[in-house]
Amino acid sequence: MTELPTPVSAALGEHEAFKLVDDATYALETTVFETRVTATAAEGRRDGSFTVVVRLPTLDAATADRVAPVVEDGWFETFERRLADVFTVAETGTHDAPRIGRDDGVVTVSLEYVAWDAREGVEDAKALIEYVEGTYAQGIIPGYEYEGPAATLVENAQTAGERAAEGAAGDHGDEYDSPF
């Protein structure tokens, strides 16, 4: 097994959102999806070449209901198009095009990039994974009963919405400070 470059290993180890999976792999703990972050030595004075992999269920695998193939295909094509911009949230300018595959109910998103600075590369990994998760959440279609990670995303969104509504109603009363 390949070891992580020392600066990358240190940056991942110090970041509270990442957990060591094995000697050369970390996982992001703030997402509902399976994630893996690895790195190899980069050429020149760069700290590392990162690989981020996110595995998530297809729409059909995420629902208790059967999803028609045409809906599943349209959902996946939209997900692919939305992820074309994934690197806009990253500091790195040196990256490959996202690779997105679908097999047996699992979508695998692979992102590869080079970071000059290990800490910046680790922050990019977190931002990229969160972008994938957010893009997935945007693609959740109302009307289905969701299971697993997708159900957790729906529940988290509902809870956050309820809390925001309670806070908005309770904090402002008749003295809402609107700039309009």
Report what the structure shows.
With 180 residues, this protein is of the alpha+beta class. It has a single domain, classed as Yope Regulator, Chain: A (2-Layer Sandwich). Helices cover 41% and strands 24% of the residues. The chain contains five helices and seven strands; from the N terminus they run αββββααβββαα. Strands 3, 4, 5, 6 and 7 form a five-stranded antiparallel β-sheet that branches. It has a two-stranded antiparallel sheet with strand order 1-2. Strand 6 (99-103) and strand 7 (106-115) form a beta hairpin. Helix 1 packs across helix 4 (118-138). The longest helix is centred in the last third of the chain and has 25 residues, at 148-172.
List the helices and strands and how they pair.
Layout: H1 6-14, E1 18-22, E2 25-28, E3 34-40, E4 48-57, H2 59-62, H3 69-83, E5 94-95, E6 99-103, E7 106-115, H4 118-138, H5 148-172
Antiparallel strand pairs: 1-2, 3-4, 4-7, 5-7, 6-7
Helix pairs in contact: 1-4
Strand content: 15-25%
Radius of gyration: 19 Å
Large-scale geometry: globular
Give a short account of the largest sheet.
5 strands, antiparallel
Structural class: alpha+beta
Strand-and-helix sequence, N→C? HEEEEHHEEEHH
In DSSP terms (H or I, runs of 4 or more residues), the helix count works out at 5
CATH topology: Yope Regulator, Chain: A
Protein name: DUF5813 family protein
InterPro entries: DUF5813 (IPR043851)
Organism: Natronosalvus rutilus
Pfam families: DUF5813 (PF19130)
